[in-house]
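Here comes a specimen:
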Amino acid sequence: MRAQQFSILATAERYAEASARLNKPGDCTIVERGGVRRQLVIKCPDGCGETLSINLDPRIGPAWRLLHRHASWSLFPSIDKPSGCLSHFILWRDRILWCDWDDDAEAPHIDAALTERVIETLQRAGSPIGFVELAEEIDEVPWDVLGACRHLVRIGVLEEQPGRQRGIFLAKPPPTEMPDAYI
């Protein structure tokens, strides 16, 4: 049975210690040495029993970003297993979102302050910006920014670039009458 939530149980200095703490699908441990997060060790939430090691240290190659915001954990980008159970999932705000879900699913919570910051940043830029770059600029979780951007597209405030440019957004010119709120 697929897990729907994940939890970070502890930190450890070594992989062996981290993996020994995992009991059920979605359990995670952070490997941290010298104040640097090195790995996220997770019991595959698909229930296949595999233990996954996710690199968090950009000094040794492509790395995921583990973020603690809004009293919850998120990981970016998604985890896509090309072998074994072939799972593809997102760790977002302590939840597991399976990538066989609707691609345009709503964010867990659309925050008015975040939508305002997204609009202001895109209007100031005056050119299209990808949601990852936008999230870095405003110091937010990329999944939250993508959810806010897609919401703003649905209400006509932003436009998303088509095709291979999906995930890149541009502020539409403001209407002559601004809505009272964006959510």
Notes: The first strand starts at residue 7 and ends at 12. Confidence is low (pLDDT under 50) at residues 102-106. The helical segments are 15-20, 112-125, 131-138, 142-154.
